[in-house]
Amino acid sequence: MNTQRILSHFHESAELKIQSATVLAQPISQAIEMMFSALSNGNKILVCGNGGSAADAQHFAAELVGRFERERFPLPALALTTDTSILTAVANDYSYRDIFSKQVQAFGQAGDILLALSTSGNSANVMAAIEAALEREMRVVAMTGKGGGAIGKMLTDADVHICVPADRTARIQEVHLVTIHCICDGIDVALFGGDVNE
What we know:
Helices cover 56% and strands 11% of the residues. The chain has helices spanning 3-40, 52-65, 84-93, 101-107, 124-135, 149-154, 169-192, and strands at 45-48, 77-79, 113-117, 139-144, 160-163. The longest helix has 38 residues, at 3-40. It is of the alpha/beta class. Residues 35-197 form the SIS domain.
């Protein structure tokens, strides 16, 4: 295969990350503050998304329940993408649109956070989860791309929108991953201060 095509992937990804840093630093900082405040108050973070975003949801929850870069007590985060019995029962008995919202209704409480991932901003089941979260007086952090789609229009002033300025799904997902790592690091620093290597 032509290595130039491979190099173009790396260059495009790197350039978008640099471009996104300026645009996203402020909303990522707001998301960190919101999540740290919720965790400090004994609340939890629920996370959802489809496909690659489902993998990102599980990645984020694993970093909080386990650890990111330093030893600490487990933090309560739950990926709504992992229980196949719930997912298949709800999809079969109700609709695929309800697979996350039913879980938000079951597990979400006022003061909790929903981290909602959708590269298009138009995932119907993620939108339904946001609706359920807002009804339960939860705050929402939405990670999107492609202009934010319908999700961008659903959020309130109390929520945070991290919208990657790109249209290519793979590139959006790559920035979402860096964003997840920024949030995990920010939570650790808020908990313990300083740098992991200090």
